[in-house]
Amino acid sequence: MDLLQLRYFQAVARREHISQAAEELLVAQPSVSRTIARLEKELGVALFDRLGRQVRLNAFGAMFLRRVDRALAELDDARRELTDAAGLDHGRVTVAAETLLTITDLLARFRARHPGVDVRLFQSNADTMLHQLADREVDLCFASQPLHGPALASVELWREEVLLAVPLSHPLAARDHVRIAELADEQFVTCRPGYWPRTLLDRLFAEAGLRPRISCEGDEPGATGDLIAAGLGIGLVPNGSRHAAHRTPVAWLRVTDPGCERVLSVVWRTDTYLSAAAEALRDHAPIMVDNGR
Predict the structure, then answer these.
(1) pLDDT one-digit tens code per residue, 103-116
(2) Which is higher by pLDDT, 275 or 87?
(3) What is the reported pTM?
(4) Considering only the top CATH level, what class is 159-262?
(5) What CATH number was assigned to the domain covering residues 3-82?
(6) Pick from 56, 134, 185, 209: CA 20 to 30 A from residue 49's CA?
(7) pLDDT of 83 over the 90 cut
């Protein structure tokens, strides 16, 4: 067997879907199918159960995957160590964040210090971040909600109040504060489940014994203010966005319920090799954030 077979097997095992694995690997689907077939022939056992076009990892495949994950992780760590030995300016760091707008300034400052570092970005919700960390797809996650795991560590970067934004024509626009209990009949603009604004909204309403009414939900937290200004509803927006979006015609109210805040943290795995570039971004993030705020 060779590394190509192992990489293809790992991708198919994680997705349990030939087409999705081929798309991830940027190769044709028949190539993936033939490679998996050759690997099974060499091993003398089937690694997947076939159900039409679907594949399911069987007991043999699960046993083999544990070893393959370990072997490929060691090889990936070795590659990173060699890259680090060649110097930080030849390194690479892979980052995930719930909204890329959150870390734009941070990454700009990092690139100014280390222009040779290759930075790769993902926009991911909390569940996806956990999978990406588990699969070693990312080095660092910038999360606005806790990411829990036995091998995860985090450092808080900043904490800010979250405000209620309403259209200027809304009856609440003349107010300066509000309680969640007063918003039971309002239509909210928010994100899909898994993103921090939705998690916060659901938690605040649950604590008030209510459920929010959702008029619009999406995958980009940074678009919430514009959608509110367009009259599609009201919504929770971090205080920092209030200053950044000074042209957005909305009114801002404080939410008096406790815990209406956003906490941004950087999260990483403690049980795997972290490249010099990733360590540099992790260690300097609190300093760069303080200097930029």
Answers:
(1) 888 898 898 888 88
(2) 275
(3) 0.70
(4) alpha beta
(5) 1.10.10.10
(6) 134
(7) no
